[in-house]
Design brief:
Length: about 240
């Protein structure tokens, strides 16, 4: 979950919904490569945070009983393996991009334990084999993954309310081509812009659904899940304009 504390209580955005928002952002980029691979990129982006772990007692809450933001959770090998398994059912290209994402997220954990190292080694081997089988160069794979990482990053900036104030710029991501992109909201409640502008259209709207719960503490996952099932749902929207 992405958890924001607001004047109305806990604002919850599911990580799967954040993935859908990332895919909305990718949709507005000019497509590149064959159509089947472009669709694969969109699928990888939309589903990059799927297969979340089941709440098994207190997984969804902090020791103090508050809803746990995803940044508070440790690496879940179970979730990473499930994500790879699901990706592979959609083909090697989707699997390649998902594997690259997991390497990017978790390579820094190398050396902590043998099980994690084995998983990271497996990802490297899979990526090499799939590039050869698909006849995709490292550069071509990186171009596709750079878009995935870019959209993931911008979606998180939006979902976590990290747009800077007073028209200041915030870096989104710099890819293999060295091009840096910044997100800016020139006025407090006005349209958002990205410099340089990478999208097809001169303006568009993206959105994500949120749930709001007023209860501040929960005894266990079951109580939090029950509150979320009854929570009012609203939609956050952002207008992007060149």
């Amino acid at each position: 979950m992405i958890v924001n504390y607001t004047v109305d209580g806990w604002q919850i955005i599911y990580q799967q919904a954040h993935g859908q928002l990332a895919a909305q952002l990718a949709w507005h980029w000019p497509s590149f490569g064959p159509a089947d691979r472009w669709v694969g990129i969109l699928s990888a982006i939309a589903q990059h945070d799927d297969e979340q772990r089941n709440w098994d007692g207190h997984y969804g809450i902090t020791p103090a009983g508050a809803p746990a933001n995803f940044t508070m959770k440790e690496f879940s090998l179970e979730q990473a393996q499930a994500l790879m398994k699901a990706a592979r059912f959609q083909g090697r290209w989707r699997g390649l991009l998902t594997s690259m994402h997991l390497s990017t997220l978790y390579e820094s954990l190398r050396g902590e334990n043998a099980t994690t190292d084995a998983f990271l080694d497996e990802q490297r081997a899979l990526q090499s084999n799939w590039r050869k089988q698909l006849k995709v160069s490292k550069s071509e794979a990186q171009q596709a993954y750079d878009l995935m990482h870019w959209c993931d990053r911008l979606s998180l900036i939006l979902c976590r309310h990290e747009l800077p104030e007073m028209g200041r710029a915030l870096e989104i991501y710099t890819g293999q081509d060295g091009q840096r992109y910044d997100v800016v909201r020139p006025t407090g409640e006005g349209p958002v812009t990205v410099t340089p502008w990478p999208f097809r259209e001169e303006s568009f709207v993206v959105s994500v659904e949120t749930s709001t719960i007023r209860q501040l503490q929960f005894k266990d996952d079951a109580e939090l899940a029950a509150a979320l099932r009854e929570a009012p749902i609203s939609t956050l929207t952002w207008e992007f304009s060149k």
